[in-house]
């Protein structure tokens, strides 16, 4: 109610309306200190604090849309009333704010969150109330509402964010990052490929059931990984995956994600470099590897020995006498 | 509801008419084909030097007339099914033969679209579109000409022919890799992955051939920066071998109860595996090993000749391609390989009697060395070398 009315037409006279709501005369040179000390000391109403909202733990899908305000908050978070040793004024102001915003209403919150918020506040200098900082304002939904009603208390969002950046910075960060949580989950499978350059290629392999397939090649120095494009991989840019009809018939596509992980796990099977493949241990590893049947996985990870043409002498000395032959 | 009176008679009559029409069209097609070449040789510009040779047709299209006709049959449905509105500059529509001729000339000569368009009286975009339509059709219709031996009899023939070369028993193929070079923008960071060890932008083509230089397995599309054995490990052939689903056929048994399994041979750029035999390295080898190396090298010439022949004949993949579409290039390479096999299957080479002798297919590339080997592979190689004491 309050939210929608104010958002609609109260912008020019927000201060007057605020004063009239609280029983103050609509005039300049209002003694704010007097108001703070006398008017509302008897009713701090901590229960109406934003943090008590049942929805305070809900992620804010719009929290990412106000990165500037968060950044500003961090810079000025030292103005917290708690830090300044003024908890009484903190309680008063939060009470006022809770009255103004009606933050306990679920329908209100959802209604507010559906509106696009202005990026900048209309009158940022008017509200110079440092005591508005509170960790509870880090609540994402409340943040949203506070920003929405910046025509009422122009710097509310700023100040509430200050608290978020200060005492509840973790919470605020988490809330913001929850929007990105899906991205993180999507990229979980790609974490091991971070630092690799990615290339998309079309490979024709006549030994495959489907001889033409799109593959992703990951390379970091001499380490190469070849994966089918259809796999669980998604592009880092989170572009919508293109469904390739040809890929649907790939035999490799039938491989489950766990199977893929298994093959990735068998990376040591191919993950050799020149120093590693010297000596008996390397031989054992190689022989073990080649006897393995895991090398048929859809992905191949290889550390390429440099294709230099200098033959490394006596790297492998194998003779019949040493019994290495497998009869 | 019964059939309409007289409908059967009508159908019979229609069938007869259709049959007559088809025979008439076949004969007219043959006539068209005969007339087409005379007409074509008059129409072309700038190809007179090639036309004046002993076999002008083959010098222009790189295939015999017989093979040309077979290719036309292969792609006929695709090239004529679509709304064919390709036109010469004079407004005449392109026939099936014209389209195949344009595509073969483009793949065979490697000339630019503009040059071929000028020779044939076409817009360069028409040359591009016709060529791509041909590639799309051939990669489907012609794939039957490129496959791993599917029956025991077929494999036995392959082994027999390999043994005839230098006596290597139970050998099923020879493997090698070549590079298709490209000109890519240097400043583009995505080009870096294609920059190979020789500082060229290239795409690799790995082939396994039989003793008649027929491609039996290929993999292409991977960057030239990858070494030969990385490409091999990326291939499904390797995967199948590791699973025991390929090169798992009849073993050759000797009197002393030793066995030689099926295998392929490759150069030092490949790992020594239980199914992939590479030569011994080093200079002062035992006589049996030196003899084995000699025979191994001689037998491997088939794959080198095959790749040299492929690049010599289909010059679109011989030179440096100017900023090609890297998703399309593998398909062009495949079609070149298919055409290579079709020539062998139809018997062009046998008729000419001039088997290509050049073995240079990657002149600017040094021999790669792979240090990886497997003990079973070493044992197999030892057994083979003992045969040549």
UniProtKB/TrEMBL annotation, chain A:
| Annotated Polar residues bias | 316-327
Q: Where is this region: Disordered?
A: 37-88, 152-199, 288-327
Please note every region of biased composition (Basic and acidic residues).
Answer: 61-74
Q: Where is the composition biased (Low complexity)?
A: 44-60, 75-88, 154-172
**What PANTHER family does this protein's entry cite?**
FANTOM PROTEIN
The name this protein carries in UniProt is Uncharacterized protein LOC111482689
Q: What is the lineage of its organism?
A: Eukaryota, Viridiplantae, Streptophyta, Embryophyta, Tracheophyta
UniProtKB/TrEMBL annotation, chain B:
Q: Which GO terms describe its molecular function?
A: hydrolase activity; metal ion binding; nuclease activity
The UniProt annotation puts the region (Disordered) at 1-30
Domain DDE Tnp4 positions = 175-341
Pfam families the UniProt entry points to = DDE_Tnp_4 (PF13359)
Entry's Gene Ontology cellular component terms: nucleus
Q: What are the entry keywords?
A: Hydrolase, Metal-binding, Nuclease, Nucleus
**Record's InterPro entries?**
HARBI1-like, HARBI1_dom
Query: Organism's domain of life?
Result: Eukaryota
Q: Which segments show compositional bias classed as Basic residues? A: 1-14
Q: Name what cofactor the protein needs.
A: a divalent metal cation
Q: Where in the cell is it found?
A: Nucleus
Q: Which PANTHER family match?
A: EXPRESSED PROTEIN, PTHR22930
State the family named in the UniProt similarity comment for this chain: Belongs to the HARBI1 family.
What is this protein called in UniProt? Protein ALP1-like
UniProt source species: Cucurbita maxima
Gene of origin?
A: LOC111492660
């Amino acid at each position: 109610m309050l939210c929608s009315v104010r958002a609609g037409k109260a912008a020019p006279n927000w201060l007057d309306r605020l004063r009239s709501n609280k029983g103050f005369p609509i005039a300049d040179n209002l003694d704010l200190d007097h108001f703070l000390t006398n008017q509302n000391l008897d009713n701090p109403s901590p229960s109406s604090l934003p943090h008590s909202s049942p929805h305070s733990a809900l992620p804010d899908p719009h929290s990412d849309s106000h990165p500037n305000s968060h950044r500003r908050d961090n810079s000025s978070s030292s103005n917290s009333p708690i830090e300044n040793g003024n908890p009484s004024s903190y309680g008063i102001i939060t009470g006022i704010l809770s009255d103004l915003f009606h933050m306990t209403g679920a329908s209100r919150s959802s209604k507010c969150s559906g509106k696009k918020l202005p990026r900048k506040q209309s009158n940022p200098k008017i509200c110079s109330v440092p005591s508005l900082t509170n960790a509870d304002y880090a609540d994402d939904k409340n943040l949203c509402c506070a920003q929405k009603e910046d025509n009422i208390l122009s710097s509310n969002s700023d100040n509430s964010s200050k608290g978020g950046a200060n005492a509840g910075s973790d919470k605020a960060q988490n809330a913001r990052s929850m929007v990105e949580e899906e991205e993180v989950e999507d990229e979980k499978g790609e974490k091991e490929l971070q630092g690799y350059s990615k290339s998309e290629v079309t490979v024709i392999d006549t030994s495959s059931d489907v001889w033409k397939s799109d593959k992703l090649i990951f390379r970091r120095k001499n380490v190469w990984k070849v994966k089918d494009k259809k796999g669980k991989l998604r592009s880092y840019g989170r572009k919508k995956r293109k469904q390739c009809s040809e890929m649907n018939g790939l035999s490799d596509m039938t491989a489950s994600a766990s199977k893929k992980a298994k093959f990735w796990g068998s990376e040591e099977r191919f993950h050799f470099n020149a120093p590693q493949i010297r000596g008996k241990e390397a031989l054992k590893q190689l022989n073990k590897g080649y006897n393995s049947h895991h090398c048929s996985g859809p992905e191949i990870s290889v550390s390429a020995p440099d294709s230099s043409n200098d033959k490394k002498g006596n790297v492998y000395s194998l003779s019949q006498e040493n019994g290495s032959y497998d009869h | 509801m019964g059939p309409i009176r007289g409908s059967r008679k009508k159908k019979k009559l229609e069938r007869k008419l259709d049959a007559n029409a088809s025979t008439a069209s076949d004969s007219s097609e043959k006539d068209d084909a005969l007339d087409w070449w005379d007409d074509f040789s008059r129409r072309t510009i700038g190809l007179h030097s090639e036309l004046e040779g002993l076999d002008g047709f083959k010098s222009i299209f790189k295939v015999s007339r017989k093979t040309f006709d077979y290719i036309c049959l292969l792609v006929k449905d695709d090239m004529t099914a679509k709304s064919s509105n390709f036109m010469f500059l004079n407004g005449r529509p392109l026939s099936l033969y014209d389209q195949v001729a344009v595509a073969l000339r483009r793949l065979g000569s490697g000339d630019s679209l503009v040059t071929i368009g000028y020779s044939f009286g076409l817009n360069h975009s028409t040359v591009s579109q016709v060529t791509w339509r041909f590639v799309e059709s051939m990669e489907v219709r012609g794939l039957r000409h490129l496959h791993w031996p599917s029956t025991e009899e077929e494999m036995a023939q392959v082994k027999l022919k390999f043994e005839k070369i230098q006596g290597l028993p139970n050998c099923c193929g020879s493997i090698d890799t070549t590079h298709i070079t490209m000109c890519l923008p240097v400043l583009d960071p995505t080009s870096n992955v294609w920059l190979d060890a020789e500082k060229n932008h290239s795409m690799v083509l790995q082939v396994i051939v039989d003793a008649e230089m027929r491609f039996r397995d290929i993999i292409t599309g991977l960057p030239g920066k990858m070494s030969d054995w990385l490409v091999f490990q990326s291939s499904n052939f390797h995967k199948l071998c590791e699973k025991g689903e390929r090169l798992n056929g009849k073993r050759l048994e000797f009197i002393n109860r030793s066995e030689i399994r099926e295998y392929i041979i490759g150069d030092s750029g490949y790992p020594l595996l239980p199914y992939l035999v590479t030569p011994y390295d080093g200079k002062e080898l035992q006589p049996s090993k030196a003899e084995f190396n000699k025979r191994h090298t001689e037998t491997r010439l088939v794959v080198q000749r095959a790749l040299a022949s492929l690049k010599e004949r289909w010059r679109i993949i011989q030179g440096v391609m100017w900023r090609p579409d890297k998703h399309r290039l593998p398909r062009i390479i495949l079609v070149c390989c298919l055409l290579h096999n079709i020539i062998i299957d139809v018997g062009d080479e046998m008729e000419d009697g001039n088997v290509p002798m050049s073995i240079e297919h990657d002149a600017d590339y040094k021999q790669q060395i792979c240090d990886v080997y497997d003990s079973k592979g070493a044992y197999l190689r030892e057994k083979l070398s003992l045969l040549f004491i």
